[in-house]
Amino acid sequence: MPYWRLSGFYFFYFASLGALVPFWGLYLQARDFSPVEIGELMAVIMATKLIAPYIWGWISDHTGHRMPIVRLASLLSAISFLGIFFADGFFSLALIMMLFSFFWNASLPQFEAVTMSYLQERIQHYSRVRLWGSIGFILTVVALGFLLDEWSVEWVPKIVLLLYFGIFLFSLIVPENDADMPAHDQGSILQVLKRGDIIAFLLACFFMQASHGAYYAFYSIYMEQVGYSSSVIGQLWALGVIAEVLVFLVMHQLLHRWGARKVLVVSLAMAVVRWILVGSAPENLWLVLLAQVMHAATFGTFHAAAIHMVHHYFVGRHQGRGQALYSSVSFGAGGAFGSLLSGYLWIGIGAEATYWVAAGYALLALVIAWRWIDHETLH
Q: Which of 74, 297, 301, 343 has its CA at 20 to 30 Å from residue 249's CA atom?
């Protein structure tokens, strides 16, 4: 297994996420966009995950080759991102964001499938590769936070562009895994999707990511309004991902001891608590820190358990589309819904109530997972 080459791709991919997600809202705010417009623009990035992963997943499942798709998508995302420097106005910026995110969002699900193909039966060790993505996020969000205290937010797109080219360069050195695709008797993908436990799993993922919408779109703006500096905001984001890295180190033990379903359910329960804390106590630094540490559960353990379940639910040549569906339904549909609605809620009912709504989404996901995901087959 090409451990460091796989890890390097994750490092740059999530480093770009560390530049884009925490600071893009501040960048848009500096360009005089309203909260509603910021919510809509952030939703554009999420919405492309509805379509892009599945299109490329279908192609890769039928060709059996994933890395050429990852390389092409990585290159086109970097090239199309250049349009950000020329976009003027809401609609032109929305078009450019739709274009670059269409390619950017296509590469990760296929790369996840490549990683799974290398891991084979060692799926529980996925987190040891993926943690380098979290490290990339941490380093970027902390460094950029300090940078923005001294310089303008106009640096944000420049840093993102640089990291996009880093993603492309690492995609060039990751080899395709030539191992035979395992056979399966699942039938068509539509037959697989008729199973009640799979529907419940995808719904739980949808609402979990919807609950993150206000966090990704407005957390930095929220903290800035309370009085935190850009460097402190960057450190808060980094704290969450540091906790995520630590839990990734022991994730294989958690999955072995508890099983994927139980890990998923506990993660959802902690998400409910986290969003209540974020909305209710932004001035209390200790509670803010506690809420950020909970990112270890609301993203770290949840995502690792979800990837484990995708690998269980979608086998053989369905693996690429399974990863794509997980990405599309959760980060795509759920993320877009949460981001879009949070922009309107932010204006209509205020920041605190918006995060209470987010907690409601997580609670709904918890009920679905507890009631309808089969615990017998997912230990």
A: 74
Pick the CATH number of 3-177+186-372 from 1.20.1250.20, 3.40.50.300, 2.40.340.10, 3.40.350.10: 1.20.1250.20
60 Cα distance to chain centroid: 21
Other CB atoms within a 10 A radius of the CB of residue 115 amount to 23
Tell me: the pLDDT tens digits for 285-309?
999 999 999 999 998 899 889 988 9
DSSP secondary structure code for residue 154 in this structure: T
| Residue corresponding to tokens 């270890």 | 296
Q: How far is CA 137 from CA 5, 16, 71, 160, 212, in A?
A: 17, 7, 21, 12, 17
**Spatial separation of the C-alpha atoms in residues 110 and 102, rounded to whole Å:** 14
First to last CA, the chain: 26
SS3 state of residue 255: helix
Share of the chain above pLDDT 70, in %: 94
CA distance 202 to 185: 21
